[in-house]
């Protein structure tokens, strides 16, 4: 089955807004072996929208639209699809009654304009929207199934899911099995070099490598026309071989972030953490505290951006700062020890470096970052020179610190503990 | 002139990768009055790509493709466009010579496979790629201009720019003028309610309101067939009226972020800042230190996630914590005063709240956040109840704190200072 996704909305063509509904839909379809051939973004423009819907329906067996189902004049998806499919729009009193109920619950009278949402494409099934006023519409024209979804993701998802289960899963013609690894402490090209000879041999499963600062993801997708078991066997055969080559860098085999994996590991071991951040400016604490439940293990720390705070609060020796500078292994070490003592934490983790674009000195290039972890009977420091913008150097520093912690939790503490 | 953009690459259909080349191209085209009607993402699939190129060329006068010009088997853009335009591919020896030079400079022999990049669509102009091996191609087929660009943005941009200046700007038929305002401390619906009666009267300029947590943007785009001056006059007429209504919330009329505006303002007034962060976990410091040059005014601060750090480092009275709780106006106030004293800063800014999803108590709902600013002879606290996920509550808290600082810098210190 071929699928085309059409996101409707002038704001998506303009001004740096990006459609994300297609990502959700593509992932769900893929899980059932329906691959998206193409996706389109089109403005709130009748001729353009009707044109692309018509072409898409000639090409694909499934066309999914999101957006343009609201009550205002620029919401034209219902009309454009009706035009493309050469069908009439029919006014349905029941929908108006439902809309009036929704507004009554909100304590207001339904604005007249919302009655536009009661127009339905002839022959379409109306899919209730539990979270908004725009119902979804599903039309099966024989050669092509067309689904109209509202634009806001929280409204789009439940409607998509109900149609997906009822009409799409039953006709999906592939069995799919996916696995993924998340890696840190290794670059994209190094990852590729270590396993390309294995995965290049396979056209099924398909291997994809995705890179973001600090984290590499490897995805494997196996397909079978016969059974789930076959799809799984194909995927496992390849993934297990790749895993063997890269296991030292894999921090997760499910969809969790590196901070989540670390918070979980700290919880398992009942350890507390405090951070001392110079160039990362609070970003390490920010990432860790994005994790639900991080307050069980994360105490906090010090953003020691100015040197006066490194000495005044963290207790870094002024002589160290003078002799080695703020960006040095010695300062990083004293920051980690200092924050651990100050916060009475089990682990102190420190970052100090030059995020740029200014600040380099002789022997200390832009992007030079020192990281240090201090724990009971354990100290480890390292440094790296990161390239990229200020924000990317910050991000890479933070992930490098998290990776040092991951290695500590794995190695120094013993894997089986 | 109608334009359609086609991003080529299976990775863009899959696994949460998003095409960003179209955003750059759309912005540049818009500056010259060429509006993008549609954009398409299509995988590395010959039939699909040739099909959409053919349809796009029937519909638009300008079709821009990015991606798929590399040397490997899945790079099929040249061939697909040739098929769609019913033109031949011609092998050009000069390109091979250029490619060999590029590889020699890198100290390696050109892999045989790169010779594929020397195939050119009959009648196309070859546009040199100073940053990579894939040259761009420009074909004017009479009714439609087709531009083939490499996928990596750093290679795409220079090639696009040279074609843009040479072939597109001369035929652009609109004069365009844009203005924008950035607002904080006001919601999207409140913004709309305050100025909709003005902007709804105008079809030219077009007004767009964009919302992200903490910041609202208003964009105005005026077009004229006659002159730059007319486009400007039209835009100013509307923008000035809207500005009058919303001036209390506007923090920038150019493309700078709220943290950038605040760092600049602190620099102008030679003031230093320290932060005390509980629920925001370092995110306030992180945002501020993303600004180049923030080290001139930002000293750092304390991530006081655990209560022991609020009292132990910041000096919040244990009796305050006991009586009012960690999430209270009193604690926020003592945190701001404490961090200001500890870091010897001119301004102390504190955030404490319940980011969720757990942690609510009787009388203290999820999303309740207290913010306090302490400066010489000045203290101001406020609280808000934010909705949204943990990360959104954190982000809204941070922007609320930044807005409190903006108001302090503007009002308490005197606007004219």
Could you characterize what this model shows?
- The structure is a homodimer of 417-residue chains.
- In chain A, helix 1 runs parallel beside helix 5.
- Chain A folds into three domains: 170 residues, 3-Layer(aba) Sandwich (Molybdenum Cofactor Biosythetic Enzyme, Chain A), CATH 3.40.980; 78 residues, Alpha-Beta Plaits (2-Layer Sandwich), CATH 3.30.70.2860; 155 residues, CinA-like (Maf protein, Alpha-Beta Complex).
- The mean pLDDT of chain A is 91.
- Chain A has 417 residues and is α/β, with parallel strands linked by helices.
- A six-stranded mixed beta sheet of chain A has the order 2-1-3-8-7-6, with helices on both faces.
- In chain A, strand 16 and strand 17 form a beta hairpin.
- Chain A is built from 13 helices and 17 strands.
- Chains A and B meet through helix 1, strand 2, helix 2, helix 9 and strand 14 of A and helix 1, strand 2, helix 2, helix 9 and strand 14 of B.
How many E-type strands of chain A? 17
What is the strand arrangement across the widest sheet of chain A? 2-1-3-8-7-6
| Average of the residue pLDDT scores of chain A | 91
Q: Largest chain interface and its two residue counts?
A: A-B, 73 and 72 residues
Write the element-wise H/E pattern of chain A from the N-terminal end onward.
Answer: EHEHEHEHEEEEHEHEEHEHEHEHHHEEEH
Which structural class should the secondary elements of chain A be placed in?
alpha/beta
CATH secondary-structure class of the largest domain in chain A: Alpha Beta
Number of domains of chain A: 3
Largest sheet of chain A: 6 strands, mixed
Q: What is the correct CATH architecture of the largest domain in chain A?
A: 3-Layer(aba) Sandwich
Helix content of chain A: 25-40%
């Amino acid at each position: 089955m071929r699928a085309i996704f059409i996101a409707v909305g002038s704001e998506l063509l303009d001004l740096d807004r990006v459609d994300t509904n297609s990502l959700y839909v593509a992932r769900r379809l893929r899980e059932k072996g329906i691959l998206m051939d193409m996706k389109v973004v089109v403005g709130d423009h009748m001729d353009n929208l009707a044109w692309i819907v018509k072409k898409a329906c000639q090409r694909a067996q499934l066309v999914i639209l999101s957006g343009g189902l609201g009550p205002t004049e620029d919401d034209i998806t219902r009309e454009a699809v009706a035009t493309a499919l050469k069908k009439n729009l029919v006014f349905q009193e029941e929908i108006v009654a439902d809309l009036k109920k929704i507004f009554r619950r909100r304590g207001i009278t339904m604005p007249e304009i919302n009655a536009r949402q009661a127009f339905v494409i002839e022959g379409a099934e109306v899919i209730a929207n539990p979270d908004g006023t725009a119902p979804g519409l599903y039309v099966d024209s024989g050669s092509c199934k067309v689904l109209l979804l509202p634009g806001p993701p929280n409204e789009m998802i439940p409607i998509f899911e109900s149609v997906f289960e009822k009409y799409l899963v039953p006709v999906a013609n592939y069995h799919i099995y996916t696995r993924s690894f998340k890696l840190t402490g290794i670059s994209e090209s190094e990852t590729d070099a270590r396993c390309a000879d294995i995965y290049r041999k396979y056209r099924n499963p398909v291997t994809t490598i995705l890179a973001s600062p600090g984290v590499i993801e490897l995805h494997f997708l196996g397909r079978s026309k016969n059974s789930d078991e076959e799809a799984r066997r194909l995927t496992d055969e390849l993934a297990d071989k790749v895993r063997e080559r890269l296991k030292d860098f894999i921090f997760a085999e499910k969809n969790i972030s590196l901070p989540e994996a670390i918070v979980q590991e700290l919880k398992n071991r009942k350890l507390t953490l405090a951070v001392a951040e110079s160039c990362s400016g609070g970003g390490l604490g920010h990432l860790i505290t994005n994790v639900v439940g991080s307050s069980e293990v994360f105490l906090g720390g010090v953003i020691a951006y100015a040197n006066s705070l490194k000495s005044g609060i963290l207790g870094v020796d002024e002589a160290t700062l003078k002799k080695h500078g703020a960006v040095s292994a010695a300062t990083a070490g004293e920051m980690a020890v200092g924050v651990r003592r100050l916060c009475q934490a089990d682990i102190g983790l420190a970052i100090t470096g030059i995020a740029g674009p200014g600040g380099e000195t002789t022997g200390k290039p832009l992007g030079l970052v020192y990281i240090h972890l201090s724990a009971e009977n354990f100290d480890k420091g390292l440094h790296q020179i990161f390239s990229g913008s200020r924000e990317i150097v910050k991000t890479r520093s933070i992930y490098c610190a998290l990776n040092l912690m991951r290695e500590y939790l794995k190695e120094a503490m013993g894997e089986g503990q």
